[in-house]
Specification:
Keywords: Chaperone, Mitochondrion. The protein is α+β, with helices and mostly antiparallel strands. The protein has six helices and six strands; from the N terminus they run αααααβαβββββ. α4 (117-135) runs antiparallel to α5. It is rod-shaped.
């Protein structure tokens, strides 16, 4: 009997304890809130730290920004000046090189044109001798009766003509101021004497003592002449 009463009392105690909510029991929603609360706090803290770092690393405007802009502007102006200087030096170099090319070309051409100058000077004496040989024969002796003299004169004349044509191909030309009726020019003439000639203009070349020669347009030997001087 006693045992049966004791068993009922223990069962009642268990039922009463099960029916009442325990102070140690935790609801699932409460556990979720507690679990989520620390995570939200850490994430907020992480974002705030990142924002602070970005703010620290971001360029500060104001005095520092103005100084940086001024430095950049100064560097750009310096680079622009360097570009202008380099361009000017480049253009000058190109111009100098082209001038050097032109000058070198002229010198080479001049060397070609006047390479025979010394040889031509020596050859001029032979041409003068042929000319003297032709002028020493009086025209009145060139008659059919003097067959040998006429043939010799014609041979010398042909030799001189061929020689002058050959020299002309190489730029050597002879000129006679008195025949051409030239005015006296000290650059190509050498006045040997002066004399009055009423029928001729002042300063005209009326006599040629020695014919002149030009090599490619340059005077190789000035002509020795007589000039009219009426005053």
């Amino acid at each position: 009997m006693f045992q049966r009463n004791l068993l009922r009392a223990s069962q009642r105690a268990v039922r009463s304890s099960a029916s009442r909510p325990s102070s140690l029991s935790i609801r699932p929603q409460t556990l979720l809130n507690r679990a989520a609360r620390p995570q939200s706090v850490s994430s907020v803290r992480w974002y705030s730290e990142e924002a602070a770092k970005k703010e620290e690393t971001a360029p500060k405007e104001g005095a520092n920004g103005t100084e940086d802009a001024a430095k950049l502007k100064e560097e750009l102006e310096k680079k622009d000046k360097e570009i202008v200087d380099l361009k000017d030096k480049y253009l000058r170099s190109v111009a100098d090189f082209r001038n050097l090319q032109i000058q070198t070309k002229r010198e080479v051409q001049a060397a070609k044109d006047y390479a025979l100058q010394k040889f031509a000077r020596d050859l001029v004496e032979s041409v003068d001798n042929l000319d003297r040989a032709l002028t020493t024969v009086p025209p009145e002796k060139l008659i059919p009766e003097n067959t040998d003299l006429v043939a010799f004169h014609e041979g010398v004349q042909m030799t001189e003509n061929i020689l002058m044509q050959t020299l002309k191909k190489h730029g050597l030309e002879r000129f006679d101021p008195s025949v051409e009726g030239m005015k006296f020019d000290p650059n190509i003439h050498e006045a040997v004497f002066q004399t009055p000639q009423p029928d001729k203009e002042e300063g005209t070349v009326f006599y040629t003592q020695q014919k002149g020669f030009k090599l490619n347009g340059r005077v190789l030997r000035a002509a020795k002449v007589g000039v009219v001087k009426n005053s």
